[in-house]
């Protein structure tokens, strides 16, 4: 089963996919760009293809935007792209709990993936996303 998910970004961090969700203008592309700066590799910006491979959900770049990431007020930047198993969903939410007890769950193509809501307006967002991947993400 393959599904195209629009309005999301995804970055591979050490081979583990970080799927970034949020309202339009919440900073999905900015977080993806910051994760690229921290050593990540782009999977997709403003959309990804999701496929169940029998053991995990694999995120792949959609062909029409593969290797392109939007830099607000600058334009499109061409970068290398890859595929990665989705290990965590980061939901950018201005009302995210300050100190949650654990993580939530996102349902992607019929499978549950750990989800962490993060407050989007902070200069340490990329570090928080990486910490969420390490603490709550699937191996």
From TrEMBL:
Official protein name in the record: HPr kinase/phosphorylase C-terminal domain-containing protein
State the Pfam families in the record. Answer: Hpr_kinase_C
Q: Which GO terms describe its biological process?
A: regulation of carbohydrate metabolic process
> SUPFAM superfamilies, from UniProt?
PEP carboxykinase-like
| InterPro entries, sorted | Hpr_kin/Pase_C, P-loop_NTPase
Its organism's taxonomic lineage begins at: Bacteria, Pseudomonadati, Pseudomonadota, Alphaproteobacteria, Sphingomonadales
| Superkingdom to which the source organism belongs | Bacteria
One GO MF annotation is: phosphorelay sensor kinase activity
Where the record annotates domain HPr kinase/phosphorylase C-terminal, the positions are: 9-81
């Amino acid at each position: 089963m393959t599904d195209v998910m629009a309005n999301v970004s995804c970055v591979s961090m050490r081979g583990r996919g970080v799927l970034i969700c949020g309202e339009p203008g919440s900073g999905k592309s900015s977080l993806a760009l910051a994760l690229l700066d921290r050593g990540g590799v782009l999977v997709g910006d403003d959309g990804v293809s999701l496929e169940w491979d029998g053991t995990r959900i694999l995120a792949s770049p959609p062909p029409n935007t593969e290797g392109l990431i939007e830099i607000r007020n600058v334009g499109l930047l061409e970068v290398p792209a890859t595929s990665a198993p989705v290990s965590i969903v980061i939901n950018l939410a201005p009302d995210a709990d300050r100190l949650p007890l654990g993580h939530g769950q996102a349902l992607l193509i019929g499978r549950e993936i750990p989800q962490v809501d993060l407050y989007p307006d902070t200069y340490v967002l990329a570090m928080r996303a990486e910490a969420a991947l390490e603490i709550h993400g699937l191996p």
